[in-house]
Amino acid sequence: MRDAAPTTIHLKDYTPFGYLVDEVHLTFDLAPDATRVTSRIAFRPNPEAPGHRFFLHGEELRLIRAAIDGAEVTPEITDAGLTCAAPDTPFVWEAEVEIAPAANTALEGLYLSNGMYCTQCEAEGFRKITYYPDRPDVMSTFTVRINGTHPVLLSNGNPVDSGEGFAEWHDPWPKPAYLFALVAGDLVAHSDRFTTVSGREVDLNLWVRPGDEDKCAFGMEALKKSMRWDEEVYGREYDLDVFNIVAVDDFNMGAMENKGLNIFNSAAVLASPETSTDDNFERIEAIIAHEYFHNWTGNRITCRDWFQLCLKEGLTVFRDAQFTSDLRSAPVKRIRDVIDLRGRQFPEDQGPLSHPVRPESFQEINNFYTATVYEKGAEVIGMLKRLVGDAAYAEALDLYFARHDGQACTIEDWLKVFEDVTGRDLAQFKHWYSQAGTPRLTVEEAWQDGTFTLTLSQDTPATPGQPDKLPQVIPVAVGLLNPNGDEVHATEVLELTQARQSFSFEGLAARPVASVLRDFSAPVVLDHDLSPEQRAFLLAHDTDPFNRWEAGRSLAGQCLLDMIIEGTAPDTAYLDGLVAVLRDDGLDPAYRALMLGLPSQSELAASLQQRGLTPDPQAIWDATETLRQATAQHMQDLLPRLRAEAQVDAPFRPDADQAGRRALGSATLALLSRLDGGAQAAADFTRADNMSLQLSSLSCLLKAGKGEVELAAFYDQWRGDRLVIDKWFGLQVAMAAPGQTAETARRLSAHAEFNWRNPNRFRAVFGALAMHHAGFHHASGAAYQLLADWLIRLDPVNPQTTARMCAAFQTWRRYDEGRQALIGAQLDRILAQPNLSRDTTEMLTRIRG
Ligand code: 0A1
Ligand code: ZN
């Protein structure tokens, strides 16, 4: 329900809860329409917050009985919770409530997914299960009894007892309520064991619906690798006798790190060569690692309040990226992460939804599980590590775990361990947590008498609520190359702390070419005015793999902008440089595949906007198509050789080597299909024995305006597999021509298999629509209207997923007046809906501005 006046919560208003919780006992009597939850909670007054009123959160609960120390009480109940008089000595609170999991379509709290009970409590879902101080700084041990008829009954911690129709669990580690979990279902386990470094035997189970057993092996291997890696790299050992993972079909996000009982969106854990692409495998491995790593960064050390979300998320994303870099290819991972950052975080940071990595206020915390908190939060940690060095980083992390284990912490606590270890003052560094917006880093060069000077300046644009910005500490990794291509100055990290600052390199024999922001050492927009020749030189010679890729990317970007703005033909300097790199078979195929990528159309729109121009989505589409066509022609002779190099002769393995070859094969096939009308793609589709090849060949056919028969065959083959059918839905929208995108999405939304209440299916169609730049922004406005229709329909059912999808509109101010008027009208139409959720109202109000 929409609040009459939505409440804004502020970081500055934090106060501790007036009571500590020593123990929680919960009993669940499961029933779809009336689950009984009985709680017995030991409270005692918090000596650090005396005299507070006793308030427990609770939403959509039917209170049956409440008692304090055995004596019944009649609390005062509101929509948000209850309050009643409480003793100023330790006491036991008891309550019995009734909830209706079957009616819970929002997928927050206790709900049913395909007949299976499961929970999602982060951020504030536990209050839909029982009355409780539902805040992360209230930590307690939990003992849980589940009474239910399902064969598998799970909760956090270790199993204590079980029998016909019941199971009991005890979690010895104090935790906040958002880490509570319960699962009850007809599930089968893929099981394994892990012996920790100190010899603890841990039972590992991946629980899935019968029929999915053959999709568990990869996830289990990823889990074991994660457990070992965290021991070896961070010295973190697992701390329970069992580790359970459950796959559920209806889930708003990727996965959730509940203590000892991770719950996963089935798309984020189930994998097989026939049904999963290489990208799926890599993502699944990373998410398993991410949730596992939360056991220390999130669970053992949690957040004091939700403003500190980046404390666990930024750090855990950083850790899972390190894990992927170690297991696969570090340069490829870095490039992919930067593509992702520019694709999701930059638009957020440069538009109306911009907020600091640590926000200072919110209305609905679920709206702040963002690319800024997660991915920019991880970048901030990467900068910190670069500034203090690897050894100090390791020491600081050891101190963090030693000092704060069992606590609910803040960013101040986090930075303090670095200050204590290094003696550095991190006051200025902290601006990365409090200032929103993407800094623009401008580079000027000077050369005189053997001295090369780089003048760096920084400027962070105004963002909502933050008109003026202070200079930040920006680590700028720089290397210098001689005109013959040799490196004359190895990578050095320059620390830019002022608005403008110069750095000199002396004693050089010739003017060097500067490779600036190596490894993307800071999340900034780099403005370095290099000539196409200098960029081509870096593309050929840079020793930093990221910047070598970046040189090609910026050449391509400049070429596309020239084509869009001046109407020029594709630049042969870019095409020649690209061919030279692709010819180099000493380079990893995965890296060469990345070289073939172009800046996204949305990124090009942002670049045009930054130059004060109004992007025309159709013109951007046309230029991109023309350049792809020119690339195919230019590389015609090389394509057969690349295909041969991409060939995988061994049995399928989802590792980096094979995945890289398949990525190069797929990028090559896309070019070839522009020349042969899809003949090779049709042949590849027929012989495909893995999902990467099946999907890439099908997408080439659709792109070529063909593939009807193959599309139908694909559907028939995979009709029973919901995750593959999600791909079938999404692909058709993604590959549609701009004038057909909205109609394709509309047609698919009328398909019998379009179960719009399932977030994965909804996102398959409408996420793909929003991602299709020229299709979504087609001048007709049809896509805007279609998406708005569906958001209006979904909001009462699932506010979280609706609100997240609203971000599709966040860049609307970039476009021409006609499009702005069309989008503005749709935003107003949604906002005018009666009873719009708090989630969606907040998102749209911020976007509307
Ligand atoms: N903490 C989880 C993500 C997550 C957040 C919120 C959710 O529901 C609103 C669900 C999952 C993670 O970082 O993986
Ligand atoms: Zn996380």
From TrEMBL:
UniProt-listed CDD domains: M1_APN
Lineage: Bacteria, Pseudomonadati, Pseudomonadota, Alphaproteobacteria, Rhodobacterales
Keywords for this protein: Aminopeptidase, Hydrolase, Metal-binding, Metalloprotease, Protease, Zinc
Residue ranges annotated for the Peptidase M1 alanyl aminopeptidase Ig-like fold domain, each copy included: 437-528
Annotated Gene3D superfamilies: 2.60.40.1840, 3.30.2010.30, Neutral Protease Domain 2 (1.10.390.10), Peptidase M1, alanyl aminopeptidase, C-terminal domain (1.25.50.10), tricorn interacting facor f3 domain (2.60.40.1730)
UniProt record similarity statement: Belongs to the peptidase M1 family.
Domain of life: Bacteria
Domain Peptidase M1 membrane alanine aminopeptidase: 218-431
InterPro entries: Aminopeptidase_N-like_N (IPR045357), Aminopeptidase_N-like_N_sf (IPR042097), PepN_Ig-like_sf (IPR038438), Peptidase_M1 (IPR001930), Peptidase_M1_dom (IPR014782), Peptidase_M1_pepN (IPR012779), Peptidase_M1_pepN_C (IPR024601), Peptidase_M1_pepN_C_sf (IPR037144)
Keyword Metal-binding (UniProt): yes
Entry keyword Transcription: no
One GO-annotated biological process of the protein: proteolysis
Residue ranges occupied by any Peptidase M1 alanyl aminopeptidase C-terminal domain in the UniProt entry: 533-847
UniProt GO molecular function: alanyl aminopeptidase activity; metallopeptidase activity; zinc ion binding
Annotated EC: 3.4.11.2
Domain annotation Aminopeptidase N-like N-terminal: ranges: 97-179
Protein name as it appears in the record: Aminopeptidase N
Reaction it catalyzes: Release of an N-terminal amino acid, Xaa-|-Yaa- from a peptide, amide or arylamide. Xaa is preferably Ala, but may be most amino acids including Pro (slow action). When a terminal hydrophobic residue is followed by a prolyl residue, the two may be released as an intact Xaa-Pro dipeptide
Family matches, as Pfam families: DUF3458 (PF11940), DUF3458_C (PF17432), Peptidase_M1 (PF01433), Peptidase_M1_N (PF17900)
SUPFAM superfamilies linked to this entry: Leukotriene A4 hydrolase N-terminal domain, Metalloproteases ('zincins'), catalytic domain
Listed cofactors: Zn(2+)
